[in-house]
Design brief:
422 residues, alpha+beta, Heat Shock Protein 90, 5-stranded mixed sheet, 4-stranded antiparallel sheet
């Protein structure tokens, strides 16, 4: 409000000053032209003489007399004064240099001053009205903002673990929609955490307790009576295998903690297509080791965006490794990208047996098929996707010959993304 009022006051002062200077400049130029005309056309007069008063006052609206000055004046001089309630402007114009006489032209400018006063009052009233409008506008905008903030606060205050609902962004002012999107991302992450936390804790306890119980039972059975060296070796090998499996699971659990730190990775601007091409070279070698083929179909040629590469790598790596795992020998895995109205879509297509679409594959310790694994990979991928604000999904292929894992990177992320296409 203060800044707007100051801006209006400065602009009004400049406008009034410009109007006043323009009017006075026109008056002065007019007097100078009249003085030049009189000096060049009228006969010589001595100092103290008034020139044809009736004609000048009624025709040119000026009073003219020849005068001298006690102090020599170089050039011309203007003087403004007030007398008997009226305003005058006076010009001293050199007339006879030998006798040092001047033409003194006096013009009544009361009408001009009155006009300027009216203009000043109009500008002043306009400023008052503008300032009143600014106050009203600021009050209305503040009321709207406070109402939106209050509504957001009330919605967040009423939420608990059992009543987490996304905020309706379309009902918010445009200025608050990015905040609403960020809050919805946070709510989505909280929903995922609340949904899977019990499964994660129970799964960890189960996955660790079962192999430990098997190891203990096997050792106890082995110690019941004397065994052959081969039987002891077999028991030790089984224990080592079980320990390796538990180490693998513990390593995956630790990835959850490390991924929480990756979520604070600063976003960087990168060409996502070039990033996929670089990763595809590594995945191609991994597929060849399994006697499978990785094919890439990446479009457009370039797609530059600001994103967190480590989290993106968590998702793509998991999808590609699963595709390689479930695709039979001599099969093909396709890494594909394409532009869609909402952003960039990345697909990993395999030739496996497909999935059970009724199963929540992103829950912790969920395993599909008979392949080995801890069951935390897709859970980690889902956590990374929620942190970035991208959408992921896994569906069966329409031809029934495998599954399609999809990553949709929207054009408006929490970290804004820009596109450059060639």
């Amino acid at each position: 409000m203060i800044a707007s009022a100051a801006l209006i006051a400065i602009f009004s002062s400049l406008l009034y000053g410009y109007i006043k200077n323009s009017l006075y400049q026109e008056l002065e130029e007019q007097l100078i032209r009249q003085a030049k005309f009189l000096a060049s056309t009228i006969p010589y007069h001595r100092s103290g003489t008034r020139l044809d008063s009736f004609y000048l006052e009624n025709t040119l609206d000026i009073n003219v007399e020849v005068t001298t000055q006690p102090k020599l004046i170089y050039g011309i001089r203007f003087n403004e004064y007030k007398e008997n309630g009226r305003y005058y402007i006076q010009l001293l114009f050199p007339y006879n240099y030998r006798e040092q006489t001047y033409l003194k032209l006096t013009k009544d400018i009361t009408s001009v001053v009155t006009l300027l006063k009216k203009i000043y009052r109009i500008i002043l009233i306009a400023n008052i009205l503008a300032f009143a409008f600014i106050i009203l506008y600021a009050f209305v905008i503040s009321k709207m903002l406070v109402t939106s903030i209050t509504n957001l606060t009330n919605k967040l205050a009423d939420m608990n673990e059992a009543m987490l609902k996304p905020i309706k962004i379309e009902n918010l002012p445009v200025e608050f929609q990015p905040l609403g999107k960020s809050l919805n991302m946070l709510i989505n992450r909280i929903q995922t955490f609340v949904k899977y936390q019990k499964e994660l804790f129970i799964g960890v306890a189960h996955e660790l307790k079962t192999p430990l119980a098997v190891m203990k039972l096997k050792n106890e059975v082995t110690l019941l009576k004397k065994r052959t060296p081969e039987e002891y070796i077999e028991t030790i090998k089984l224990n080592i295998k079980t320990i390796d499996e538990m180490n693998n699971m513990v390593g995956n659990i630790l990835k959850i903690g490390r991924q929480e730190g990756d979520q604070f990775e600063p976003p960087v601007e990168m060409d996502i297509i070039e990033y996929l091409k670089d990763k595809a070279n590594n995945y191609r070698l991994l597929a060849e080791q399994e006697k499978k083929e990785l094919i890439t179909d990446l479009k457009p040629d370039h797609y530059v965006g600001t994103i967190q590469p480590t989290l993106l790598n968590h998702i793509i790596q998991n999808f590609v490794q699963n595709a390689i795992k479930f695709t039979p020998e001599n099969g093909k895995i396709i890494l594909k990208s394409s532009l869609v109205p909402d952003g960039l879509k990345i697909e990993v297509i395999d030739e496996g047996a497909g999935i059970d679409e009724n199963m929540d594959l992103f829950a912790p310790f969920k395993r599909a098929g008979k392949k080995s694994g801890v069951g935390l990979g897709l859970f980690l991928a889902k956590s990374a996707a929620d942190a970035m604000g991208v959408m992921i999904d896994i569906k069966n292929r329409k031809d029934g010959k495998g599954a399609v894992a999809t990553i949709l990177i929207p054009s408006t992320l929490a970290c804004p993304i820009t596109k450059k296409q060639k």
